[in-house]
Write a structure and sequence with these properties.
The chain is mainly alpha-helical. Helices cover about 50% and strands about 5% of the residues.
């Protein structure tokens, strides 16, 4: 009889970071901070094409315009030139990989042949309804289930109580 095979591959993984309150930041800096806060970008990481991708997708949300991966790559490259950033990480293959990360966080969805911010929603609404209420809550519940099972398998012994009359 073959035993059950267990894989240590997570079904979902998220990194959240807390930064200072946002004050006087430019649009790109705000998008960069969003990417850092949601774990889409690591602090100090120089390969930050995802920042410009999200920037472009947010600009397209205003116009309710879908973008293909190739169109997103072209616009992202143009935006990087505008901000005097190197064109690294803007190959269509990398754009697709970054789109997959944004789709995993339920920020981006594919409609027909194009991509958009999910249901044209605001990022705050997406965070509350998709990330907090769905992804994080399910993850918290699963962690609690593992903790309960662990406590069941490794029970805590009750502490010995002091006998009456003895010190």
């Amino acid at each position: 009889m073959v035993g059950k095979v267990s894989h240590d591959t997570p079904l979902f993984e998220v990194t959240l970071r807390k930064y200072e309150r946002p004050y006087d930041l430019g649009k790109r800096d705000i998008v960069r901070r969003v990417c850092l806060s949601l774990g889409l970008l690591s602090p100090g990481e120089s390969r930050d094409a995802i920042v410009d991708m999200l920037y472009v997708l947010l600009e397209m949300r205003k116009r309710r315009q879908l973008l293909t991966a190739e169109g997103l790559a072209r616009r992202t490259l143009g935006l990087r030139k505008k901000f005097k950033k190197p064109g690294i990480g803007v190959a269509t293959s990398n754009i697709r990989r970054q789109l997959a990360r944004l789709k995993e966080l339920l920020i981006v969805e594919k409609i027909d042949t194009g991509y958009r911010i999910t249901e044209w929603m605001s990022l705050e609404e997406l965070y509350q309804s998709r990330i907090e209420a769905y992804l994080l809550e399910e993850t918290r519940e699963r962690i609690r289930a593992y903790l309960e099972l662990c406590d069941e398998k490794f029970p805590v012994k009750k502490p010995l109580t002091a006998r009456k009359g003895k010190k």
